[in-house]
Amino acid sequence: MAVVAVIVLALAVVGWAWLQERAKDRDSAAAASCVGGTVTLNVTVDPDILVPVKAAAERYNTTKPHVRDHCAQVAVNPQPSAAMITAFTSTNPWDPALGPQPGLWIPDSSRSVELMRVPGLIGGTPAPIAVSPIALAVPDQLRQAMETAQVHWADLAKLQQGSLSDIGLTQWGGLKLAMPSGDSALAVAAAVGSGVSGTDPLDENAVHSGQVTSAISLLAANAPPVKDTAAALADLAAATDPVAAPVHAVPASEQQIRARNGLSAFRPSENGPVDDFPAAQITAAWVDQTENSVAGLFADFLRAPEQSKLFTDNGFGAAPPNTAAVPVKTVLTQVQQVLAHPVLGVSSTVLLDTSSSMSTPDGAATRLANTLAALQSTMGVMPPEFGLGVWEYSKNLDGTTAYKVVTPTAPLTDAQRTALAQSLGAVTAGTSKSDHTYPTVAAAYRNAVSNYAAARSNTILLITDGPEDDSPVTGDQLLADIAAAGDPAHPVRVDVIVVGGPGTQTLQTLTQRTGGTYTKVTSSNDLAFGTAVSKALTTP
Q1: CA distance 291 to 294
Q2: pLDDT given at position 12
Q3: Is the peptide bond before 502 cis (omega within 30 degrees of 0)?
Q4: Residues 179, 198: contact at Cβ < 8 Å?
Q5: Contact indicator for 407, 445 with CB cutoff of 8 Å
Q6: Facing residues of 410 across strands?
Q7: Which of 153, 349, 427, 472 is 20 to 30 A from 86 in CA distance terms?
């Protein structure tokens, strides 16, 4: 028995020692796995997607992840995407009201990523974690009418300025589409621009065209005022009489719209914008390598199929395979500029040289005939909210006055188009070889400032094959007169097209100082000439 007792005691001692060693090994392994301590990844998300992301973060934290000898955890902070764009692109110190500077940012859309894009601040191409199409929140009666009429994005500007009777709603008046500042309105405006121009996504050339600027401006200029998207959706949902309501439609994501009882979502059938909630890894100085690694792992965790139900249960679609194609930053900022400061087209006064040299044959017709044809052709594609007028000039056209008003500048109503067509048909070249270009430009400039057309680009287009100015007004005097007549609140752009003539440095300087264009073409019987006329009269 004593031998047995000794053996048992020996085994107990050995077992205890073995257990102690195992515990030490476990403690050492645990300590080694978090030798760097705990690292916290700060994730800033758009409030719209806070609930599922926060739930995913809690799920991730329960896995007790170890990254680069650190214990990792994720902290989620909701902040509006617009506020974060301002903070990221500002040179001011970080605003502590926005919470800690994030290592991962999940905004509402790839448009927001594009707007905040600063070289070196985002690593790689942010991949989306969920999706919700952008649509219009509308009463169901309006949705049905728009779907029946197959309304496209490009139609919204026309409905905004016109009447919903065009789609069968005779009592509604025009479409009261609110355009609150924010991503959804920006997305809709860009979609309208794409629809009008036929470019998807909207590009640099299209966004500066007169048609796109006019369409986006009509959305903004005629939009009923609202505080923000949330308030507009609440007011629209609470309206008892949708016909008489101050707002008929509000841009929003389908997820936001579904959360409001009484509202329907209308989305044109063609490709449209989406909120795709991209996970952008921040590579700034405040994010170390470990936090960056955690950001990549958590972004992958969010996109994993196991997390999909967190998003679908909250009204989102699962993560799309690719990032949505969006306009580049310069295009988006131009759309924002037009939304903030609508330009309802161009109001232009054409100064038409009718000195004798304009009767020079140029192809099958004269320079003047080709010029009149280019004006008529351009007028045919100008929207009715654009303005156009024509002066002809040479020398002593009206007594001792060098110019004569052919048709005063006014919006292109049917009556104005008829008046312009008739008056242009009667314009002929005179017998004077010389002209008084500079006094005419100065007079037209003063007239444009005095009769400024609000919410439009006010311009003067000079078309000449000279000038051969023998007036007492020198080039320096012209520039001084224009500077004296200028009004910062009423800017007037001067564009110049020189056809086969020498032009002058004075006119080139004048276009530079007023933000205009200076174009020299060798012939009026050329596509380049017609393009120059069209651009000058349709580019805001």
Answers
A1: 5
A2: 43
A3: no
A4: no
A5: no
A6: 388
A7: 153
